[in-house]
Amino acid sequence: MEACFKWDPCSDHSYCIVKHHDFGTAGIKPFRFCNHWMLQNNYKETIVASWGIVDRNGNMMNLSKKLYRANHVLKKFSKGIEDVKAKPFSKKYVKKALFRIHNTKSPGLDGFGSGFFKGLWGEIGEEISAAVLDFFQSGKLPSNLNETVISLIPEVKNPTDVKDYRPIACCNTLSISAFQRCYVLDSQRFCRA
Asked: Which residues, in sequence order, are CB contacts of 59 under 8 Å at separation 6+?
């Protein structure tokens, strides 16, 4: 077994390619939103154009599809750059929770960190809030938004064994981080009441 680390020019994270001599290399490079894309002249217009396609599914499924479309638009884009408890959550809580997440926090499989959502909040914030609030009402979450990437971080200079790595879980920004932070904010509100 051998491990090779490759640095991504868009991120402060590196990819690890693990080769098992019996099985070869598996998988493809996952999408990662790069915050510098927000500096492009037509960034908002490009995303809003791909975001505007209407679908008849539930809010979370629509949001999942829109993020999927934005993922593909941004890949093209980058080629030129190498209540106490009974009271329901409000849109204000969703925004506050999301905006507490650092812009460069490691994204999950969808590749979108909080910087993406913050940068477009004026254009897509209502829809993001509606989808998150819908989750709290229905309890339904598309499986692709509930996926987690486990990254192995080397603990020693020349790792040779699995025990030489520390695992880090990278959850999707919306499905876990925003929801957990909404609960934290709600718990703080509950404790003050």
From this structure: 127, 130, 131, 134
What is the model's pLDDT at position 97? Answer: 84
Which tokens sit at 73?
């638009």
> Interior CA angle at 63 toward 144 and 13, to 5°?
55
Distance (Å, whole) CA 187 – CA 192? 9
User: What band does 131 get if pLDDT is binned at 50, 70 and 90?
Assistant: confident
Q: For residue 167, give the nearest of 179, 183, 184, 155 by alpha carbon.
A: 155
Q: pTM here?
A: 0.53
β-bridge partners, 150: 169
- Per the model's pLDDT, the better-predicted residue between 149 and 93 turns out to be 93
Strand partners, 4: 17
Phi (first) and psi of residue 14, to 5 degrees: -115, 155
Residue 120 confidence (pLDDT): 93
User: Long-range pairs for 97-103 at CB < 8 Å and ≥24 separation?
Assistant: 97/177, 97/178, 97/179, 97/181, 97/182, 97/184, 97/185, 98/128, 98/173, 98/174, 98/177, 98/178, 98/181, 100/181, 101/173, 101/177, 101/178, 101/181, 103/35
pLDDT digits (tens, 9 = 90+) for 3-16: 666 665 555 555 66
Domain locations along the chain? 2-192
